[in-house]
Amino acid sequence: MWIPTENEKYGVVLASFRGTVQHGLPLEIGDTVQLLEKCEGWYRGFVLKNPNAKGIFPCSYIYLKNAHIKNKGQFETVIPMEDSVITEMTSTLRDWGAMWKRLYVVKSAQHTHKNEGDLFHRLWHVMNEILDLRRQVLVGHLTNDRMRDVKHHITARLDWGNEQLCLDLVPRREFSMVDPDEISVTELFKLMEHRHRKKETPVPASTHHLFVHMKSLMSFSLGEELEVFFHIYDSRENRPLSERFFVRLNKNGVPKSPEKTERQCTLFVDLGSSDLRKDVYIVVHIIRIGRMGAGEKKNLCSVQYRRPFGCAVVSIADLLTADSKDDHLLKVYACNTESEWHQIHESIIRKISSRYNLAGSNTGLAVSLQLLHGDIEQLRREYMVLFTRGVSITKKLGFSDIIMPGDMRNDLYITLEKGEFEKGGKSVARNVEITVYVLDIDGQVMKSYVAAGSGEPGGDEYHSFVLYHNNSPRWAEQIKLPIPVDMFRGSHVRFEFRHCSTKDKGEKKLFGYSFVPLMQEDGRTLPDGTHELIIHKCEENANLQDSARYLKLPFSKANLPGNNQAVKGVKESFWITSFLCSTKLTQNGDMLDLLKWRAHPERINDSLSKLKEIDGSEIVKFLQDTLDTLFGILDESSQRYGLKVFDCLVHIINLLQDSKFQHFKPVMDTYIESHFAGALSYRDLIKVLKWYVDRIIDAEHQDHIQQVLKASEYIFKYIVQSRRLFALATGGQNEEEFRCCVHELFMSIRFFLSQENKGTSPVTQTQCPCVCCNSQAVFLRTFPAVYGELLKIFTVKEVAGFVKETLGSLPATAHAECPLEAVKLQCMAKTVESQLYVNPDSRCTLLPVVLRLLQAHMQEQRDLVMCAHILTSMLSLIRKDDSVTTEPAVSEEVDLIVESLLGLLLQTILEITNRPQPAGTNMRLQFQDVTGEFVACLLALLRQMTDKHYQQLLQAFTSKDDLRDFLLQIFTVFRILIRPEMFPKDWTVMRLVTNNVIITTVLYLSDALRKNFLNEKFDYKVWDSYFYLSVIFINQPCLQLESFSPSKRKKILEKYGDMRVMMGCEIFSMWQNLGEHKLNFIPAMIGPFLEVTLVPQPDLRNVMIPIFHDMMDWEQRRSGNFKQVEAKLIDKLDSLMSEGKGDETYRELFNSIIPLFGPYPSLLKKIERETWRESGISLIATVTRLMERLLDYRDCMKLGEVDGKKIGCTVSLLNFYKTELNKEEMYIRYIHKLYDLHLKAQNYTEASYTLLLYDELLEWSERPLREFLNYPMQSEWQRKEYLHLTIVQNFDRGKCWENGIILCRELADQYDSYYDYRNLSKMRMMEASLYDKIMDQQRLEPEFFRVGFYGKKFPFFLRNKEFVCRGHDYERLEAFQQRMLNEFPHAIAMQHVNQPDQTIYQAEAQYLQIYAVSPIPESQDVLQRDGVPDNIKSFYKVNHIWRFRYDRPFHKGTKDKENEFKSLWVERTTLTLVQSLPGISRWFEVDKRELVEVSPLENAIEVIENKNLQLRTLITQCQSRQMQNINPLTMCLNGVIDAAVNGGLARYQEAFFVKDYVMNHPEDGEKIGRLRELMFEQAHILEYGLAVHEKFVPQDMKPLHKKLVDQFHVMKSSLGIQEFPAYVRASPVHFNGSPRNSCRNSVPNILSLDGARVVARRSPLTYPSVNRYSSSSLSSQASNEVSNITGQSESSDEVFNMQPSPSTSSLSSNHSASPNVTSSAPSSARGSPQLQDKHKHSRENSCLSPRERPVSAIFPTPLDPAQVKAPYQNSRYQFKKASPNQIGDTILPRSDPNLSAPDKGSSAKSIRSQSPGPMSRSPQKSSMPPFTPSPTECQSAGLVSNSPVLSGSYSSGISSLSRCSVSEASGTEATAGDHPAHLAATMPNSVSSGSDELIRRENKTPPPYSVYERTNPRRPVPLPHSLSIPPNADPPALPPKPHQIRTSSMKLDQASDSRRADGVPHVPRPRPLPRKVSQL
After folding, report:
1. pTM for this prediction
2. CB 1634 within 8 A of CB 1426
3. 1294: exposed, middle or buried (Cβ count in 10 Å: 0-12, 13-18, 19+)
4. What is residue 167's three-state secondary structure?
5. Considering only CA atoms, which of 1705, 1209, 1661, 1224 is closest in space to residue 1420?
6. Does residue 1878 contact residue 1927 with C-beta atoms inside 8 Å?
C-alpha cells in the first residue's frame, strides 16, 4: 500500500535506473528527486527537472537529504536544508553544464573561434575548481575563517561564470542568495546595485606592497661572497623611503640559504598611493666580502673586508602596468671613483655617466618584482602560499599613511654618514672601518640588536665597508636597532674606528671611538636628525669594556659647553643621522611636560596651550595618558582650567577626524567605555558647551565654535558616560538637575538652529549672512551621532522628542548660497538610518518631520540623490510581511507616505527619465542615475499597499480630473519601468519583482477605471494608456519564459506564475466592459493586440482571439466592411516582422503563430456564423499568406551574409505587396531593400532591374514629391532623372550596356525636349561610351542552373518549387551546388534529375535537386544575322531568356549492344519562367514545364545538322581570315572524318537505312531522306573544307592534311558516294555574304501539313551555340560511338563553345550522350506568324522588361489555338499544291526548333506538359524556316520584311542558301499567296492587349503595376552601319550545295532579282525610336 512520505521528501540518485518496470521512472545518476509516496522498498515521485513525469523507483537508488517543505499538500515545494551556497552551486553547475556543451558545439562549428574556445576551456577549469571547493564545504572540516574564504571564493567564481555566460546577476547577502520576497524592494535594489558596481568598478586600493625575490647575480668575475641591499628611494627628496632588505650571496652569485625563502624574498609594505610615481626607485647596492683590491693575488692574509662592488636601479613606475610577477635582469654599475660610492644611485638615476660604468659586460642582477595592492591581511588571504612559504617584511621608514591602534613598533635607524680623519702619522690616507655596538645601562653589549636590514637576523655588531685610502670617507650606510622600549633608558651606541692595513698581516688597528646615548635624562629619546659626534682617540689595547669611564665624556660637538674650545677645535669628527619610529617613545618635551603635570603644576597652563602644537602622531601614541591627564586636571581645577581642558579635548577629538588617525576612534571609544573615570566631568562639559552655543550668534569668528560643534558627538559621549558613572556611584542623585541641564542645552541649540541669518542685532547685520548657517550645518552633520548616546539615559520617546523639536526648529527656507539645505537632508538620512528611527515608537514621531522635508525638496526637484537615499532607508524598514500584520502603526506609516509622496514620486520619475542624456552615453544604464533608487522606492511603496490603502488613495481624489491625471501618470511611469534600459541586462530578479508589483497595482486600478470612466464618463485617453501599458507589459523580453532554461522557467512560474496570461485576462475583461466604446479603439488597437498574439503562449492566444472577432464585428456594423482592420493588420505585421519580433520557435509553431487562423477553431467558427463570413475568410487567407512571407523574410534577414535566400524572400514579399495588397508605399520600401541587398552582393544588373521598378512608377512631370527614404524633397522629373542615371551606372557596372543605352536615349530625349544641350551632350557621350564598351570589352556568358527545393523544411517562398538561377562569373555546376549547400546546410543533394514523388514533397526535410540547363534565346534574328559581331551576339544569347532546355538520353525498348543508336531517345524538358533572366533576382520560379521525347532518328538528324553548322562556320571564318589560327578547323575536320572512317556515320546507316527500319516506320520516310541529305551534305562540306584547309595549312601540318584527305576518300567510299548527286552540284552554296536576291526574312516554317498543333521545339541549326551544355552521361560505349558519329572535336572556338560542360555529370542518369546528342540546342526566336506586333522583339524592347509585369519582365505570350488556326490551314493548302519537285530553296528541309514532336504516328511522342500551353507538330520536309522579327523592323512593316539570311560566319546549315521566295518590296507580299502573316502584323493593339490580359489570367500572372498606360512617339532612326547590308557585295567562290530543282522557287528568285534589276532601290528600314522604359 502506498503511503505518503512524511520526512523522506528529497533525495539524490546514486545510480542510474532504467525504469523498465511498469510505471518505472528512468533516473540518471546525480538527478534530484522529490518523493511523494513509499511502498515496500519503492518510492513514487518525480525528477525535479521534469515534474510532469511521475513514476516509481527503488529506495536503494536514492540518498535521502534533509529538506524544508513549503505549502505542504498537493502543491508542496521541497527546499533542501543544506547550505544555501551549496544549493546555488549545484543548480548553477547544472545550468552551466548544458551551456558548456553548447559552447563546445559552437567552438567546433566555428573552427575554434578564439573567444568561444577560450571561454570553453576557462569555464571547464572554473567548474572543476568549484566542484573541488564544494567537496571541501561538504566535508565540513574547515575552520570558520577558512569556510568564509572558501565561500567567498565560490561566489566570486559563480559570479564570474554567470557574467561570462550572460546569465542573471544573483543578489547575495553574506554569500547566501536572497529571496526577493523576504526583503523590501529598496533593499533588493541596493544589493543588486552594490554587486553591479562591485563588478563594474573595483575600488582602488590605498595601500600597496612590493614583492621582491632575489634570484642571482650573474657575472664572470665573481669568486667572493656578496651582500645585496635593496631599498626604496625617493629621488625627488633624495631620501630612502624604506629600511633595507639584505641578502647574502655565495661565491656563485646565488643566495646562501636557498631553502630559507624568507632570506631571499621580501615584501616592502605600506607604500602609499603617493609613493607610486616615476621618481621613486628600487635601489640595489652590492658589497663584496674579500681582499682590499678586487684583483689582488691571494696571500697569507686571511682578513676580509666589506668593499663596494656595484649598484642597480629600477623605477617603480615600470611595475605599475605589470599585473603578474615579472623577472627583471638589472644592469649593475660600478663607481669610477670610490669616494663617490655614497651617491652612485643618484648618478645612475640622473644619468651622470661620467661617474659610473658597467661593472662588467655580462654582469646582471636577476630579480623578480611584483606590485601587490590592498591591506596586508587581504594579501595574507589571497597570496596564502607566499606567506606560508616564508617572506620577510621590510618596513617603511616612519609610519604608514594610516596608523592602526594595535601597531607596535620601536625601531631606531642610524645612518653612518661620513667621517673626517687625520693621517695619524701615515704617508697615505687611512682605510677606515667602523664597528657598531649597542650597549645597555650596565655597559654590556646587547645581543642581536644590530641589523643590517630585514631578511637576515640581527647581530651583536656591525662592520661598515672600507673605502681605500680615504680620510674623508662617506658611507651612507643605514642600520636598524630594534631595541625594546624597556631597555632604551641608559643604553648607548658605540662606534669604533679601525685602520685596515693592506700589509701581510692585514691587521685592523683601533685608533678612536665615538658614542651616543639613546635617551636623555628627562626621558626624551635621541632627537631625529644629523649628529656630529666627537672621535675620542685611543689605542688598540685601550679598555673600552668599562663604559662608565667614557660615558662621562661629551659625545657630540653640539652638546659641548661653550668654554670647551679645545675639543671643538679637533678636526676629526663623525656624522650620523638618527630616525626613531616608535609607538611608545617620544622626543617631544612638551608632551612629557603635560603628562608629568603633577610634578610641575605651574606649567599646566603652558602645557595645555602647547598641546595644539604637538604633532598628532605624538598625541595618539599617548592618547589614553593624555585624556587621563586632561580629565585629572578638570577634576582638580575645573574653575581655573575648565575652558582650556575643554578646548584641548575638542582638539584631540577633531584630530581623530583626520584620515591618518581615524582608526584611533575605537581607541577613544574603548577609553570612554572602560577607562574613563571622570564622574563629575559632565557638569563642566555641559556648562562649557552651552556657553559656546549661546555665543555662536554673537561671535565674530566662528572657526573655533565650529570646531566645538564638530566635536559634539564625542563631547556628548563623555557627558553621558560621566553621568552614568555618577549615577552608578551615587545611586542616581541629581537626576532632575541633569535632565534640566540637558533640556536647557537643547533649548540653546534649538534657538541657535532657528536663526535665519537675518538677525536684528547690530552684530548680525554686519556679518555675512551664511556665517551662522555654516555653524548650523556643522552641528547638523554630527547631531545624528548623538542619538545613540542620549538613548543610554533617556527613553526612546524622549529622545525622539528632542530630535523632532531640534530638527523642527530649523528655518523653513535658507539663503541661496547657504549649504544648510543639503546638510539638512544628510542629517535626515543619518536620522532615518539610526537606531532611533528603527524603533516603531520613535518612527511615528519622526516620520512627519522627515516627510515634510522630503516633500519640500522633491517638489522643487532639489538634492534628488539624497532624497532617494532617505526614501530607500525609510522603506527598507517596512517589511513586506509587516503590512499584512495587524499592527496599525505600519499601516499608518504607509498611509502617511502614500499621502505625502506617492504623487511626487511618480512626478519625479517622469521628470528624471525625460531629461536629455549627456552626449556620448548611448543607451546609458539608468540605474547609474538616481532613477533606479526612486523606482525601487515606488515599487516598495506599492508593494506595501493593501486594499484599504488603494481605497483611501482613490477616495482622496476630489474630482474626476485629478483621478484621471493620476491614472495617466502612473500608467506612464509603469511603461517607463518596463523599458529594457531601466535596469541592467542581467537584473532579471529586479525586473520580475517590478512586473509583479505592476500587475498587482493594475488589477487594483482597473476597478477605478471601470467605475469612473465608462458609459457617459468615458475617457479615451485613460483607456488607451491602460491598453498600451498592458500590451507593452506582455511583450517585454523578461517575461518570455520560452526563451529561458527549464530550471529558470520553473522557478519563475513557481514564484510568480505566467504574468502575461494574467494581464491578457485583464485586457479581455476590460475590453468586454467597453461596449459600444470599442469603436474608439478600432483600428488603433489592432496592431498592439496583434503584437500580443505573436507571443507563443497558447493560453494568452485563447484569451486574445475573441477580441479580434469582436473588432471585426463592430467594424462591420459601423462601416459595412473591415478595410480598416485589414489595412492596420497588414501594416502592423510588416513592422513587427521588421523589428524581428518573435523567436526561432515561430517556425515550428507556425500554425499557432497566426492568431486569427491558427489551430483554434473558435474564431473561424464565429466568422462562419456571421453574415460577413466570405470577406472575413478572405481577410484571414490574405493575412495568412502575408504572415508566411513575413516570417520567411524575418528568418532570412537573421542570417549573417547576403545570399539568395534573402533576395528571393524579398522578391516574394515585394510581389505580394504589389499584386495582392496593392500597398504602393510598402512595395517601394521593399524595392529599395532589395536594391540594397543586390548592391551588397554586387549583383549590379539585378540592382538596376530592381530600381527600374520604382523608376517606372514615376512620370516625367513636375509634380512635387515629399521626402521619402533617402530621397530629398524634389520634383517627380528630378527623381526620375536621378533614378535613370543610377540605373545606367549599375547597368554599366553589371556590363549590361545595351539596357543602359535605352535609358540614355530616353534621358537624351528629355534633355532634347527641354533644350538642355549641356546634359544632352553628356548623355550622348555616355551612350557612345556604352557602345564602345560593347565592342571593346569582353563579357563572360553565365551558366544557368535549375534548382528544385523539395520538402516542408524550406521557407514558404521556396517550398516544393523549382527555379532557374543565373550563375556567377566563372561559376560551374560543382561550385554552384556547393554554394547552395552552404546556404542550406541541412539540405540533402538529390543524385538524379527525375521529378520527385509526393513523399519527397511532404518530407520534414530539405532536398535540393540541381542541374545545368541551356538558355533558349528570344532574339534569334540578331543571332542569325550575318555581320553582327560576336560581342553583340553574346548579349542576346544570355539576356531576356524566358525558356531553358535540358536533354536526358535514355534507351527505349531493347538496347542493341551492336548499335545503341537504334534505341537512343532523348527526353527534352523545356522550362518557362514567370519572368525572364536576368531580372530583379538571379533566379525565378519555373512557371511551365514541357516535356517531349525525341526519337533516335530525329536525334541523329539534329546531331549531323549541328556538326554541319559548326563546319560551315569554321570554314567561313577561315576564308574570311577571321581566325588567327587554323587549329580549330583542323581539329574539327579530323574529328568528323576520323569518326566517319571508324564507323560513325555507318552506324546511322545500319540503324535507319536498313529495310527493316524503313518497313516498320513508314512515317519516317521523309526524315530518313533528310538524314541521307545531311550525310551527303556533310561529305560535301568536308570536301570543300579540306580544299580551304589545304590553302591555309602550315607546312608542318601538311602530313596531317594528307592523312585527312586519304581518310576522307575512305569515308566517301564507305558511304557509297562516288560523286555528289546532281542537286548537290547544281546549286552554289554561299558561306558568307547574302546574295543580292535574298530577303531579310525567311518564310515561317512552323506550319504542319495536317494542321494539328504547335509544338514547342527549336532547331539547333538556327542557333550557333548549340553545344554549350552537356546534360548527362551515357555508357562509355555509347558515348564513344556518338563521339565518332558527331566528330566531336576539341575546338576552342568562342562562338560555338563546343566543349562539353561539366554540367550534370554528378547528378545525371546512368546514360549519357555526346553533347551534340543531348545538348540543349538553342533555337530561333519565339516569334511566329501569329504573333502580334506588340510581341515582335526589337533590339530595344528586348533589353528591358515591361512595367505590366510585377517584376518588370515580359511573359512570352503563348499562341491561342483559335488565332492560329486559319493561317495554318492556308499555309497547308499552299504547300499541298506544290510538288516536291516544285518547291524551291525556301522550303528546304530544316529542323524547326519550335517543334518538339513529329506528326501523329511519328515515333516521337509528346509525353506531358506541365502547363496548358499550345503545342505544335514536328515539321514535314516542306516546312518553312521560323520567322524572327528584326530588331530594326518598322511597326508598319509586313511579316516578311528585311531579314538577314544566315550566312558567313553565322550560316546555319542549309538555311544559308539563297532561298527567300518573297521580295523585300512591300508589293511582293502578295505574291506569297494567301499568306496570313500580314494580317497578324496589322492587328489592332487593343486585341493584343486583350489577349495579353486573357493569357495573364490563364497563367495566373499578376496584373500590371502601372496605373497609367503611357505612349511615347517614336521617330525614325537609321539602321547602324554594322547591321546594314553591304550593297552589291560579290560573294566569294562558294562550294556546291545539295539541291533539287524547284521551279517555283527559282521563279520567285528571278522575280526578286528582276525587281532589283528594274532599279527599285533597297531602302533600309527606318529604325524605330526606343519605347518608353515603362512600356518595355
Report:
1. 0.59
2. yes
3. buried
4. coil
5. 1661
6. no
Residue 1643's DSSP bridge partners are none
Report how far residue 1719's alpha carbon sits from residue 1668's, in angstroms, rounded to the nearest whole number: 7
Residue in the structure block whose three cell numbers are 466570405:
1174
Nearest alpha-carbon partner for 309 in 438, 427, 221: 221
> Angle formed by the axes of helices 638-655 and 681-694, to 10°?
80
**Alpha carbon distance 284, 8 (integer Å):** 70
Q: Which residues of 119-150 are buried (b: 16+ CB within 10 A; e: fewer)?
A: bbeebeebbeebeebbeebeeeeeeeeebebb
Question: What are the backbone dihedrals phi and psi of residue 432, each rounded to the nearest 5 degrees, phi first?
Answer: -95, 135
Burial of residue 1282, with CB atoms counted within 10 A of its CB: 0-12 exposed, 13-18 middle, 19 or more buried: middle
Please give the angle made by the CA atoms of 1726, 1727 and 1728, to the nearest 5 degrees.
Answer: 115
CA distances to 83, 85, 97, 343, 1411 from 89, in Å:
10, 6, 12, 59, 57
Q: Are 247 and 263 within 8 A, CB to CB?
A: yes
Round to whole Å and give the CA distance between 546 and 527: 26
Task: Determine if the peptide bond prior to 554 is cis (ω within 30°).
Answer: no
Which of the residues in the chain have pLDDT under 50? 111-113, 300, 758-769, 880-886, 919-927, 1142-1162, 1622-1976
DSSP code, position 296 = P
- pLDDT confidence of residue 1308: 96
Q: What are the tens digits of pLDDT across the range 1041-1057?
A: 888 888 888 888 888 89
Rounded-to-integer distance, Cα 1618 and Cα 1579, Å: 11
What's the grid cell of residue 488? Answer: 632604551
CA-wise closest residue to 1647 among 1360, 1872, 1311: 1872
User: Which strand (E) or helix (H) includes residue 1017?
Assistant: none
Q: Cell 518588370 sits at which residue?
A: 1752
Cell of 1563: 512515317
Q: Are strands 1264-1265 and 1344-1350 parallel, antiparallel or unpaired?
A: unpaired
What per-residue string of b and e applies to 959-977 under the rule 16 or more CB within 10 Å gives b? eeeebbebbbbbbbbbebb
pLDDT of residue 1452: 86
Residue written as cell 533539287? 1940
- As a whole number of angstroms, the distance between CA 247 and CA 266 comes to 10
What is 1886-1951 written as a DSSP string?
HHHHHHHHHHHHHTTPPPPS-SS--------BPPPGGGSPPTTPPP----EE-----HHHHHHHHH
Give the closest residue to 1042 by CA, choosing from 889, 1162, 1193, 1152.
Answer: 1152
Integer Cα distance of 769 and 757 in angstroms: 5
Look at residue 1522 in the predicted model and tell me its pLDDT.
Answer: 65
Residues β-bridged to residue 531: 576
Q: Residue 1838 and residue 1350: Cα distance in Å, rounded?
A: 48
- DSSP line for 749-806: HHHHHT--S--SSHHHHHS-TTHHHHHHHHHHHHGGGGHHHHTTTS-HHHHHHHHHHH
Residue 29 phi, psi (nearest 5): -55, 135
- 586 and 569 Cβ atoms separated by less than 8 Å: no
Cα separations (Å) of 934 from 847, 848, 858, 873, 899? 18, 20, 11, 12, 16
**What is the structure's pLDDT at 562?**
60
Q: What angle do CA 1465, 1471, 1474 make, to 5 degrees?
A: 170
Q: Which three cell numbers stand for residue 1586?
A: 579540306
Query: How far, CA to CA in Å, does 403 sit from each of 46, 203, 379, 659?
Result: 61, 21, 18, 9
Tell me whether strands 42-47 and 54-58 are parallel, antiparallel or unpaired. Answer: antiparallel
pLDDT of residue 1346: 95
CA–CA distance, 1255 with 1374 (Å, rounded to integer): 37
